[in-house]
Structures are given as structure tokens and as C-alpha cells.
Write a structure and sequence with these properties.
4 helices; mainly alpha; 91 residues
Length: 91
Amino acid sequence: MNMTEQDYEESDVQWLMSTKSGRRVVSRIMEQCGIYQCSFTGDANKTIFNEGQRNAGLQLLGQIHAHCPEQYPVMLREFKAFKQQFKESQS
């Protein structure tokens, strides 16, 4: 069977999201892309830059929802726990 580019994408995203460390990497990328915050800054160039980053994160989110939506809430719970654990260890 010949796999298409879409087949590889689906397989790759499922593989990435199948491990705790993979989900942690994706969580950090999404956070860095600013998908959970407003892009507007008052400076047109900075806002445009932020929107570009946010768009990249939203594309990744779309791939997750398309190929393994059940992993998204798992990722959110794990990342919240990770951030809390890390914060407590720094105090």
C-alpha cells in the first residue's frame, strides 16, 4: 500500500501525541505560538507577527483535532499538572 502525504501527516501527528513527552512538546509550541491569547498589541507590525505565530499554532491544533482529538484534553490536563509541579518545585 502506498501512503499519501496526508496518511503520513495523520500517522506522524498520532505518533507525536501518543506519548507524554510528545504532548508536552506540542503544549509548549502552542503556548509559544500564543494560541490561547490575543495577538493585538497596538503596534501593527507586532500584531501581524503575533498573528503569524498564532496561525502556525492553530494549524497544529487543527491537525490534532483532525487526527487524534481524544489526545487534546489529555494534553491540556498533563501540561497543567506539569506547569503546577514545576512551579511548586521552584518555590
